[in-house]
Specification:
By secondary structure, the protein is an alpha/beta fold. The chain is built from 14 helices and 15 strands.
Length: 382
């Protein structure tokens, strides 16, 4: 009982301290909050990936302010964007401003694991965006249906769980942390057709119930094969007239392991591969190019969420080559469990660990990693 009470006290003190800092930060934006004192590894010998310039003319940057072309990003041709008359504010939270907030949040919350959570930093950033009448840009790769085990949905939309901003539990049916989500601009990349359709329905509901003014769904796969704009994408047949055996596969096989790596899917499904797998041509490109095509500035992503069933190491390697260091997202959340399992069951040809590669790469870019649970890492760039 004493340990539980102590944890509650720490949770309340840490988060109230951060809320007090937000008020002070209004008058001291851009202040340097000091160097990070904790170092996990010496990165002097780590090779830095080649970088390219960020996309131009997608956002107007001036005096630490970033302006979006909302009419291009949020066209009325998208059903989600027609639910509400209001659009997100045209001023985006900039990378420089985000990093100063994230650094201070980290200093207050991350000594204690129970408050060093993806949901906590996400809720605080959206709270701040609302306070400053700016837009919080998040990108999700592998969004599935936009709801099931979805951390973005969990931290912003659902009406139960923790309210990290006010350091208390949300009372189901009595209050909601964010009754209006007009300051949130979610970008969701999902290649599996059924998941994509379900995701659109989820966000139509969010727009209707929570005042979301704009969302950017993208039905494509992230690929770093520069010679292709269309990729053969392997997925399980989920149609109503699919063979009964395919319908009986567990949901994680039916809905979660669509991939550009058809050889890997064949290893997973074995004898069910020929019967159940469709190879569809699908739009594909690098993450930055997919965003640029939608007029989204990749150099000002606040939070990047990745769940692509073991291929996080390929995506992160590509993203870190595309975006210069000073524009990298300050917060990245990604699944690691499947990479760990793949390293054991299907090692790479050169025997390099996928998970070790990601950890080494991210720490070389200044991220500190926190193992939230058996599935996910929270990465904070300091």
């Amino acid at each position: 009982m004493g340990l539980v009470l102590m944890s509650i006290v720490i949770f309340v003190v840490n988060n109230l301290a951060f809320v007090r800092w937000l008020s002070h930060h209004d008058e001291t934006r851009g202040e340097n909050y000091g160097a990070v004192k904790r170092h996990l590894v010496d990165f002097a010998s780590v090779t830095q990936p080649q970088q390219v310039s960020p996309p131009k003319a997608k956002a107007t940057v001036g005096d630490n302010l970033v302006s979006l072309d909302i009419n291009k990003i949020c066209p009325r041709s998208s059903a989600i964007n027609t639910i509400n008359s209001s659009s997100p504010p045209s001023q985006l939270m900039s990378t420089a401003k985000l990093r100063s907030v994230v650094k201070h949040w980290h200093e207050i919350n991350c000594p204690e694991k129970n408050t060093c959570q993806f949901s906590s930093i996400g809720q605080h950033l959206l709270h701040l965006a609302m306070k400053w009448n700016q837009t919080l840009l998040t990108v999700q790769v592998g969004a599935m249906d936009g709801r099931s085990n979805d951390p973005m949905y969990g931290m912003f939309v659902k009406t139960w769980g923790k309210n990290y901003v006010q350091a208390r539990e949300i009372v189901p049916g009595e209050d909601s942390l964010f009754p209006n989500l007009s300051n949130w601009l979610p970008v969701m990349i999902e290649p599996v057709p059924k998941n994509y359709d379900d995701m659109e329905q989820t966000y139509l509901g969010v727009a209707k119930d929570k005042g979301l003014g704009c969302a950017v769904p993208i039905n494509a796969a992230v690929s770093y094969d520069s010679e292709k704009s269309s990729c053969a994408f392997c997925r399980v047949n989920t149609a109503e007239d699919s063979p009964q055996r395919c319908k009986e596969l567990p949901d994680w096989k039916r809905l979660q392991i669509g991939t550009l790596d058809c050889e890997y899917l064949q290893k997973v499904l074995k004898t069910d591969f020929d019967l159940c797998v469709l190879q569809d041509p699908l739009p594909c490109n690098s993450m930055v190019k997919l965003l640029s095509d939608k007029f989204i500035p990749a150099e000002h992503i606040a939070m990047l969420q990745i769940d692509i069933e073991g291929y996080e190491y390929i995506l992160l390697d590509g993203v870190f080559r595309e975006i210069p260091d000073n524009y990298l997202p300050p917060v990245i959340h990604f699944e690691h469990k499947v990479m760990f399992d793949m390293d054991k069951k299907h090692p790479l040809v050169n025997r390099t660990s996928r998970l070790y590669h990601v950890m080494e790469l991210m720490m070389s870019k200044g991220y500190q990693l926190y193992d939230e649970n058996e599935d996910d890492y929270l990465a904070i760039r300091l």
